[in-house]
Amino acid sequence: MPIAKISPSLLSGDFGILAAECKRMVSHGADWLHMDVMDGHFVPNITIGAPVISCLTKHLDAFLDCHMMVSHPEKWVDDFAKAGASLYCFHIEATKDASALIDQIHAAGMKAGVAVKPKTPISTVMDLGDKMDMCLVMTVEPGFGGQRFMAECMPKVAELRARYPNLDIEVDGGIARENIDAAAQAGANVIVAGTSIFKADDISGTIESFRTTVNIQQELLANKK
Ligand SMILES: O=C(CO)[C@H](O)[C@H](O)COP(=O)(O)O
Ligand SMILES: [Fe+2]
């Protein structure tokens, strides 16, 4: 049974003090740290690249969940591996050979994730379930934080969970206390949240409530089988 992993999105943090923001999230109970990498081409925004990850890993020892919103994801695998990224999650829409790219990521020593945009059918990644380490089902159009959660993506999570009971399934975009139940009931166990965590009055309590909700639902799903 996959356990909850809460991965705050640093996109909502202060990039001027990024290492301190990462440490702050870990001190509040974050399991992973979600790093949104945007190239201004795959998505209409630019954030950070491998040099920033490389600087960060000198200051902290944390699981870096890198969400690669980039065209040509094959190009950056070695740079991110050298920089100390833990998980390299590319978009299925950005590559012609996802299976070969997963092999490349594994050979470089990272875990491999595959992301799908809201309008991309889950069938595009269904056969990769035994090969990838994680599937990211986007719940907003990638590119910006602070958008509305798209509940209509939940059937994709449920379909993937039904076929792969042990796969890490991540949801990303607009996740908050109001919709964590829907995400967890569908079967998501890796929760990305930027706005709702960074803006919370009680950050530790928010992270803990996401974790509890996911773990309860995972147990229910496991007992249903
Ligand atoms: O991938 C992303 C945007 O493309 C971010 O991870 C995501 O939007 C998280 O921020 P928020 O919780 O504020 O929506
Ligand atoms: Fe993301």
Description:
Its EC number is 5.1.3.1. It is built from 8 helices and 8 strands, in the order βαβαβαβαββαβαβαα. By secondary structure, the chain is of the alpha/beta class. An 8-stranded parallel sheet has the order 1-8-7-6-5-4-3-2. It is globular. The N and C termini lie close together (11 Å). Fe (ii) ion binds at residues 9, 34, 36, 67, 172, 192.
Percentage beta strand: 15-25%
Radius of gyration: 16 Å
Q: What's the SSE pattern?
A: EHEHEHEHEEHEHEHH
Q: Could you please say which CATH topology applies here?
A: TIM Barrel
CATH class: Alpha Beta
Total beta strand runs: 8
The overall pLDDT, averaged over residues, is 98
Class by alpha and beta content: alpha/beta
Keywords: Carbohydrate metabolism, Cobalt, Isomerase, Manganese, Metal-binding, Zinc
Cofactor: Zn(2+); Co(2+); Mn(2+); Fe(2+)
Catalytic activity: D-ribulose 5-phosphate = D-xylulose 5-phosphate
GO molecular function: D-ribulose-phosphate 3-epimerase activity; metal ion binding
Give a quick summary of the entry.
This protein has one domain (5-224): Aldolase class I (TIM Barrel), CATH 3.20.20.
Task: List its traits.
225 residues; alpha/beta; TIM Barrel; 8-stranded parallel β-sheet; 19% strand; binds ribulose-5-phosphate; binds fe (ii) ion
List strands and helices in order, with pairings.
Layout: E1 5-8, H1 18-27, E2 32-38, H2 50-59, E3 63-69, H3 77-83, E4 87-91, H4 98-107, E5 111-116, E6 134-138, H5 154-163, E7 168-172, H6 180-186, E8 190-193, H7 195-198, H8 203-224
Parallel strand pairs: 1-8, 2-3, 3-4, 4-5, 5-6, 6-7, 7-8
Helix pairs in contact: 2-3, 5-6, 6-8
Bound molecules: ribulose-5-phosphate (5RP) and fe (ii) ion.
